[in-house]
Amino acid sequence: MNRIQAKLQEDKKLLSIYFTAGYPNLNDTVTTIENLEQNGVDMIEIGLPFSDPLADGPTIQASSTQALHNGMTSTVLFDQLKDIRKTVSIPLILMGYFNPMLQYGVEAFCKKCQEVGIDGLIIPDLPVEVYHEEYKAIFEQYGLLNVFLITPQTSEARIRYMDSISDGFIYMVSSASTTGSQSGFGNEQTDYFKRIADLKLTNPQVIGFGISDYETFSQATQYAKGAIIGSAFINYVTAHGVDDLGAFTTPLLNS
Amino acid sequence: MATATVCALAGLECIVYMGEIDIARQAPNVARMKMLGAEVRPALSGSRTLKDATNEAIRDWINNPVDTHYIIGSAVGPHPYPDMVARFQSVVSEETKWQLKEVEGRENPDYVVACVGGGSNAAGAYYHYLNEPDVKLIAVEAAGKGIYTGESAATSVLGKEGVIHGSKTLLMQTTDGQITEPYSISAGLDYPGVGPMHAHLYETKRAEFISVTDDEAMTAGLELSQLEGIIPAIETSHALAIFEDKKFKPEDVVVISLSGRGDKDLNTYIDYFKL
Prior knowledge:
Radius of gyration of chain A: 17 Å
CATH class of chain A: Alpha Beta
Mean pLDDT of chain A: 95
Mean pLDDT of chain B: 95
Strand content of chain A: 5-15%
Largest sheet of chain A: 9 strands, parallel
Structural class of chain A: alpha/beta
CATH architecture of the largest domain in chain B: 3-Layer(aba) Sandwich
Helix content of chain A: 40-55%
Distance between the termini of chain B: 26 Å
Structural class of chain B: alpha/beta
Number of strands of chain B: 8
Number of helices of chain B: 12
Low-confidence stretches of chain B: none
Distance between the termini of chain A: 31 Å
Number of strands of chain A: 9
Largest sheet of chain B: 4 strands, parallel
Strand content of chain B: 15-25%
Helix content of chain B: 40-55%
Shape of chain A: globular
Order of helices and strands of chain A: HEHEHHHEHHEHEEHEHEHEHH
Radius of gyration of chain B: 18 Å
CATH topology of the largest domain in chain B: Rossmann fold
CATH class of the largest domain in chain B: Alpha Beta
Strand order of the largest sheet of chain B: 7-4-3-8
Oligomer: heterodimer
Order of helices and strands of chain B: HEHHEHHHEHEHEEHEHHEH
């Protein structure tokens, strides 16, 4: 069983953290992952930086620009992660835009993901139909789960289509937004969380975009299996670096 | 401009994203859009030109999908936008056909020449000739300060297949797949890719691609002004510049898409020629 699938079967709400690989410093990637696991995080999204991250707000844009400036590339990231499975056992998901993967070669990229121990991919600009027709077989060959994003505007038919070709979780974007643009959830969002929960999908849902603290994390996980924090974590490491991550994760896990 | 005009007529709120560099170098267009009631927001990231303005417009749309329509004038971005833009612009080749019939007694020229950034005017100028193999299509790209100077937008030479703004096309990029910041003296040609239709015309050799430098374009723009009394947009000046080197037969009928007026570019002409 894939590590993501095993984690999703645990009887708990999952805290997942996104960070940009190579940020704040090029060689912070492995330290960040190890410290997140030691501090009780359930799952990690490793952001492969891209020059033009359309789905991201200013915080992750800035971290991506800095990471690229630091020298991060697909090749550097795979090299940094080559021994990660000696020290880390939680699920690792690579999140990035499609063009760097296309240039690396989609199959070569997937093969490398499997070699270093990546469990899944999140690619906001790869449409589900294109994935289904052209890449699903390759992803499966290398044991990778692909995670699709839905928003409040995604039709039920499309959600059910994604559900039918997913084997991990559905990534629920909390509202129609880029990353980091929310503070707190209103009725409109909780209605949407309920509506999706009531669809009784095969795949559990994990909510992301706009989760920044204990309050939003616990609101989101009332309706979903877990939640993902990205921009708020990037802001934390921008201010404090990656050596002491407990100060960020403890309030989320122990409240 | 077109969007701001239509929004004024229809009473709709209009927000235009424009690269900070382009706001400065096309100030008259910005003033016109403001007079029409549009809010012009500068794109401050990347090269602060067309690519970055497109990023910001798409992000705005992601954040406001219910009450906002996304509109783009370039033949780029996700389907069906390039197709829609090409159809709207196709009026150019439709009119070319009947005007040419009046003037030359034939609907089809030997050549159609158009400048290509994202590719909207070229898409329109070619549209009704795409399936007329006797009509040769010439696409003129911006070589900036020279194709290999690192300050260029000559996508057909420097680009390879990639994904930007939701479409797969020819794209200027690093070996790692990061998008390269383009450069051209002309705001409309300053894009690191071409629309997917143009990538197809290039790959299938249906269109011949020629690159023209800033200097060649500016000289051609001045020449048209002095010979014909038409001050062209700097985008258009690129298309005009091919007549320096490209040889035609005296009897050839060559249609050139005069895609824009130079009013918006006067600041750049003034700075360049010290007018």
